[in-house]
Every structure is written in structure tokens, then in C-alpha cells.
Design brief:
35% of the residues lie in helices and 25% in strands. With 523 residues, it is α/β, with parallel strands linked by helices. It folds into three domains: 3-194, Rossmann fold, CATH 3.40.50; 203-396, Rossmann fold (3-Layer(aba) Sandwich), CATH 3.40.50.620; 415-510, GMP Synthetase, Chain A, domain 3, CATH 3.30.300.10.
């Protein structure tokens, strides 16, 4: 099938570009930004995308595309860093601005955008002004030779550029981000208008392709899935049971003591529906809490939790007589890129996910003994795959829950008392959202127990109690998010329900941060 190749220079949004193109029904393949063009890569390739990057294009040692990719004669869409690099290497100028263009920014099409017939098909139908999503500190000051500006930001900075003789387009904003108006239209015009790509990709096609890959890797060997009961690991379990012989699939649920209220019962009930032949539960609360005692650093917590999963798994395998197996995980691409494990070698660590950067897991991955069938998907795509696999909506529609559980929602050191307090508060919060018909309007909601206490009044007496923060966000894929706009009445009543029913909590605050600059979870 036709494909678009994406050169990854370390942007947090690279996989999102690929995901958007797949939404259009066209296969996309992400490769390291420095990849040399060869017959295998260029086979069926109809276009190339240059991604953004945390680097500056003018810095010594900045990542760069191989000349063979630029000489392939294919259409190119250069996004953010991509167009800055092309600008510099065509004799133009890129400089660091005092004021960073970041977030929602208007873009204005210039009259010549529609005047030239060569580019009218790309710009036709776009309004003269639309709101883009920008994320850059450097800006193009002077376009390179052969490049022309046809759109500018509110500050007059080049935002859309086209090449005079080649089917190359440059964007100083991110059309792949959901907050960018007309972003999908812009990508569609490049994919279908400029590249003339044909549709041929679907979630069913992904399922078939990934199934072939995993069967070839594991053969008849057993596969052990560490399953948390969240959406990701449950879909991964359903995928493995459909793809492989159910006799070779082992599901191991580990109760870490960091789960939500009544989570254990719900998890086992849901897993029993999958038709697994081998399903085991392990109570490891004491082991996890002992290992985390006195630990406050979030990166250290994640590493400890990841390592403990492997240690408990190995003990359970020995005790239960499970044969030596591949380790399977419900890792998503968001986990990988936030952990600095993107396709290229320029990605930065935002936060280490326990299932990615734990030393023991990295060792198993280096040995080629880790299976991650969801590692190219975003959360909403995982939900779509779950529906293709026939999972019920009450499973695929659940809010995300991190693998480290409450371990990254208790800031500071972790104790059983704090886990119990947070469990109760979170249960009240989620129940209130369901009762008010808000749960399905929100992509993810949870409580965070803060490492401070606050003075208050209980009856006529002074009180000194914990503070809990409420988080509720709207998102499509977890890469960008905005806070849910509660009615004040709902927020006030939810706060009162928590402080009235959880005696250890005396104050409730609401987190109004977007992603970026914040992440969804606090740790």
C-alpha cells in the first residue's frame, strides 16, 4: 500500500503525525531522522515528512536528514524544526526570538497563497485566518533560496512556506495537534493533493500486521502478560489471546497495593471475560510498599515500581510453575516518547514510565524478550483496537489509569495510610462524576494527594489535614490536553463530598493546567 515516511528528529509529536496520517487511511512509517534512503524504505513511498525537534537547527551537531532522502524526488512536508533546517541549508536565516511562539497562535494566509496556481489546491478552502498550534523558540527570519512565504503568524513571522520548483511545503506550526484548526485538512491536502496517496490502512490492517509480527517472533513459546486491569493491558491481553494459541498466553495480575478502591475485584471480573486459560493474581502489597518506603523522588519511584513488577513476576513464575516466557506489556507510544524512547536518538526524557525505563525491563528488552503489541498506538487507537477485538464498552471506555497506580498520585513518600486516604477520595470523585453524568465527557479524572497539610476548622476546633488536588482533562490522544470546565456548582459540591466523607482531608483544589506545559499526571 502507499505510505508516507516520517523522519523523526525527536519531537514529542512525531508519532502523532503518523497517527493522523493513518486516520486518513494511509499507512505511515516513522524512521530515525538520519535514515538513509534505500529501496526498502522508498518502496511504495509517496511522500516524506520532516518532524519537529527539541534541538535548534542552527546548533552544531543538530540532527539532519540524509541527502539521499531530499534527493529522492518525493513531496516533502517539513514541520517546525524540519522547515527551519531546510531554511538554513538553503541559505536562509533562523534565529532565537525573545518571545516564544507557543500554544494557540493565529496564522494569516497572504494573498499570493491563492494567486499561484501551483499552490492553490493546497490552500483553497482554508480561511484567510485560522488558529494554529505552535511550539518553537526559534523562528525563520529570512526564507531560503527557492522558498516563498505564503502565510505568517500574528507577529508577521513566516508560518507557511512553499518551494518554487519542488513539491515541498514548510509549516512553522503543528497541524497534527488536535488544537490546530484545519490541521487535518492541511495534512489531507498534502497526503492526497500533493502526494496523490491512496487509502489502504485501517485498525483491522494494523491488527493483522502486528499479529503476523508477534507470531513470527514468539513462535510457540509462552507469553506472560503483566496485566493491571486498565484499558491498555486488558486490550493487550485480548490481542494476545486472539493472535496466539490461548494455551501459550499467561495473564498475571499483580496487586501492588497502589490500586484504586475495589480495583482488584473489577480487574479479575473483567479478565475472566477474555477467555484466558491461565489467569493468576498475586498479592504483593507489602513488597511494593516496603520497597517504596521513604522514597519521594518520582523518577526513583517509577524505577522501583518497574523493577518490583519484574521481581514479583519472577517469584510468581517460579512458585506457580509458569514456563520461561516472553514478557508482554500494554506499553503505548506515549509511554515510549515521554520516556525518551522515540524512534530516533534525539528524544528527551519527560518522565520515565515504569514499563519502559526500569533497569530490569530494559535488560529484558535488550535481550529481545519483551512483546509490546500496542507500542505504536495512542490511547484512543487502543480503544478502537479494543472495539475491533470485541471488548465491551465498559472496559474500553474506562478512564486511563497509570501502571504505577497511586504511586505517582501520592506526591512525596508513600504509605498505606496515604494510599487508603487517596483511594477513598478518588472513589468519591469518580462516583460523583458518574452520578452527575460527567464521566463520559471527561477523558481522564483523578485525585492527587499533595505532600502538604493545611490549617482548617472541624466543628469549633482547629484542624490540620491533607490537601487533595482534583484533575479532569479533555483530550483525544493524551499528547495534548486541556482542563475540563466544570460548572462551579459541581466543583463545590464534589469538594464538599470529599472533605465531609474523608476525615483526613481538609482542603480540595482543582488543577487548571493544560498539557503542555504540564503533563496529565503530576509525577
Amino acid at each position: 500500500m502507499d505510505k508516507i515516511v516520517i523522519l523523526d528528529f525527536g519531537s514529542q509529536y512525531t508519532q502523532l503525525i503518523g497517527r493522523r496520517i493513518r486516520e486518513l487511511g494511509v499507512y505511515s512509517e516513522i524512521v530515525p531522522g538520519e535514515r538513509v534512503a534505500d529501496a526498502d524504505l522508498l518502496r511504495d513511498c509517496v511522500g516524506i515528512v520532516l518532524s519537529g525537534s527539541p534541538s535548534s537547527a542552527w546548533m552544531e551537531g543538530a540532527p539532519s536528514p540524509d541527502r539521499s532522502m531530499l534527493d529522492a524526488g518525493l513531496p516533502i512536508l517539513a514541520i517546525c524544526y524540519g522547515i527551519q533546517w531546510l531554511t538554513i541549508h538553503a541559505g536562509g536565516s533562523v534565529e532565537r526570538r525573545e518571545t516564544r511562539e507557543y500554544g494557540s497562535m493565529p496564522v494569516h494566509l497572504l494573498p499570493e497563497a491563492r494567486a499561484e496556481a501551483a499552490w492553490s489546491a493546497f490552500t483553497e478552502g482554508l480561511p484567510e485566518r485560522f488558529v494554529s498550534w505552535m511550539s518553537h523558540g526559534d523562528s525563520i527570519v529570512r526564507p531560503g533560496d527557492g522558498w516563498k512565504t505564503i502565510g505568517v503568524s500574528e507577529a508577521g513571522v513566516p508560518a507557511i512556506l512553499v518551494h518554487a520548483t519542488k513539491p515541498w511545503i514548510g509549516l512553522q506550526f503543528h497541524p497534527e495537534v488536535s488544537h490546530c484548526e484545519h490541521g487535518m485538512e492541511i495534512l489531507s491536502r498534502f497526503v492526497f493533493g500533493v502526494c496523490a496517496a491512496r487509502r489502504g490502512w485501517s485498525m483491522e490492517a494494523y491488527l493483522e500486521e502486528e499479529a503476523r509480527r508477534i507470531r513470527a517472533k514468539v513462535g510457540s513459546e509462552p507469553v506472560l502478560l503483566l496485566i493491571s486491569g486498565g484499558v491498555d493491558s486488558t486490550v493487550a491481553g485480548a490481542f494476545l489471546l486472539k493472535t496466539l494459541n490461548p494455551e501459550q498466553v499467561y495473564l498475571l495480575y499483580i496487586d501492588t497495593g497502589l490500586m484504586r478502591k475495589a480495583e482488584n475485584e473489577e480487574v479479575m471480573r473483567n479478565l475472566s471475560r477474555l477467555g484466558a486459560r491461565h489467569l493468576e493474581a498475586v498479592d504483593a502489597e507489602a513488597q511494593f510498599l516496603n520497597a517504596l518506603r521513604g522514597i519521594s523522588d518520582p523518577e526513583q519511584k517509577r524505577h522501583i515500581i518497574g523493577d518490583m513488577f519484574i521481581k514479583v513476576q519472577e517469584e510468581a513464575v517460579a512458585r506457580l510453575g509458569i514456563p520461561e516466557a516472553f514478557l508482554a506489556q500494554g506499553t503505548l507510544y506515549t509511554d515510549l516518547i515521554e520516556s525518551g524512547k522515540g524512534v530516533g536518538n534525539k528524544a528527551q526524557v519527560i518522565k520515565s514510565h515504569h514499563n519502559v525505563r526500569s533497569p530490569l525491563i530494559e535488560k529484558k528488552r535488550a535481550e529481545g524478550r519483551v512483546i509490546e503489541p500496542l507500542d505504536r498506538l495512542y490511547k484512543d487507537e487502543v480503544r478502537a483496537l479494543g472495539r475491533v477485538l470485541g471488548l465491551p464498552e465498559e472496559i474500553v471506555g474506562r478512564h486511563p489509569f497509570p501502571g504505577p497506580g497511586l504511586g505517582v498520585r501520592i506526591l512525596g513518600d508513600i504509605t498505606k495510610e496515604k494510599c487508603d486516604i487517596l483511594r477513598e477520595a478518588d472513589s468519591i470523585y469518580i462516583d460523583e462524576l458518574r452520578r452527575r453524568g460527567l464521566y463520559d465527557r471527561i477523558w481522564q479524572a483523578f485525585c492527587v494527594l499533595l505532600p502538604v497539610r493545611s490549617v482548617g476548622v472541624a466543628g469549633d476546633e482547629r484542624a490540620y489535614k491533607y490537601v487533595v488536588a482534583l484533575r479532569a482533562i479533555q483530550s483525544e490522544d493524551g499528547m495534548t490536553a486541556k482542563p475540563y470546565a466544570f460548572d462551579a456548582k459541581d466543583l463545590f459540591e464534589i469538594s464538599a463530598a470529599i472533605t465531609n466523607r474523608v476525615p483526613q482531608i481538609g482542603r480540595v483544589v482543582y488543577d487548571v493546567s493544560s498539557k503542555p506545559p504540564a503533563t496529565i499526571e503530576w509525577e
